[in-house]
Automatic annotation (TrEMBL):
Taxonomic classification: Bacteria, Bacillati, Actinomycetota, Actinomycetes, Mycobacteriales
Record InterPro entries: DUF397
Domain of life: Bacteria
One protein family per Pfam: DUF397
Listed name of the protein: DUF397 domain-containing protein
Domain DUF397: from-to ranges: 8-59
Native species: Nocardia jiangxiensis
Length: 68
């Protein structure tokens, strides 16, 4: 998937602390979700389809990747 991220509105989770060890996400016009490292905003970003993002966040909330 090749998406122009120049106009994306990036934000950090409300659960993010004040440190620079955060990820940022952007909800994109095509329904995709971008994820990037907040320390490297001009670096690469991961792109998820809406279904992939829903599956990922569901797995996070159910503890599939470890303790919540």
């Amino acid at each position: 998937m090749n998406v122009d991220l120049s106009e994306a509105k990036w934000f950090k989770s409300t659960r993010s602390g004040g440190t620079k060890e955060c990820v940022e996400i952007a909800h994109l016009d095509n329904g995709a979700v971008g994820v990037r490292d907040s320390k490297n905003p001009t670096g690469p970003a991961l792109l998820f389809t809406p279904a992939e993002w829903d599956a990922f966040t569901t797995d996070l909330s159910t503890g599939k990747f470890g303790p919540a």
